[in-house]
Amino acid sequence: MSDTQIRHGKRRFYDNTKFPRGFAKSGDFTLAEEEILTIYGDTFVSLESGELAPANEEEKHFIEVLDNPELANSKHERTWLKYVRLARGRKRFHTLNGRNKSEGGEDFADEDTSIVEED
Questions:
Q1: So what's the pLDDT on residue 22?
Q2: How far apart are CA 75 and CA 65, in angstroms?
Q3: DSSP H helices in 12-116
Q4: In terms of Cα–Cα distance, which of 67, 77, 17, 66 is closest to 41?
Q5: What confidence tens digit (pLDDT) does each residue in 65-104 have?
Q6: Cβ(62)–Cβ(44) under 8 Å?
Q7: Which among 83, 87, 84 is positioned nearest to 30, based on CA atoms?
Q8: pTM for this model (two decimals)
Q9: Hey, where are the domains in the chain?
Q10: 3-class state of residue 107 by DSSP
Q11: Residue 81: CB partners within 8 Å, gap ≥ 6?
Q12: How far apart are CA 97 and CA 80, in angstroms?
C-alpha cells in the first residue's frame, strides 16, 4: 500500500454500525479493499469532514473526487466511494411480493392467483 501519498490514519478505521463483522466478511469488499479502508479510512473521514487539510496533490484530488465521483482514478478513491455508497446509501429491499406489469400493460398482481385444491 505504499503506492500512494495519502497519509495513514491515526487509528484503524472500522464501521461497527454498518459492517459489524468487518468489511471483508460483509461480502461487499475484497481483502485489499478492507485493508485500504482500515488503514486510510480515518484519513478519508477527516479529509471529507474538513477536520484535516489536504497535504499533497493526491489528497487534494481525493477532495475533488468526493464532489465528482467520475474523476476517481485510484483504487483508494474508488474503494472510499464504494464504502460511502454502501454505508450511507439507501439499502435495497427485495420482496417476493410485488406488482409486475407485462409489456402489454396487464397487471398480474390483480389476478386471482390463489391455489384451489380439487378433490
A1: 87
A2: 12
A3: 31-49, 57-67, 75-88
A4: 77
A5: 999 999 999 999 999 999 999 988 866 665 676 666 656 6
A6: yes
A7: 83
A8: 0.70
A9: 24-88
A10: strand
A11: 65, 69, 72
A12: 34
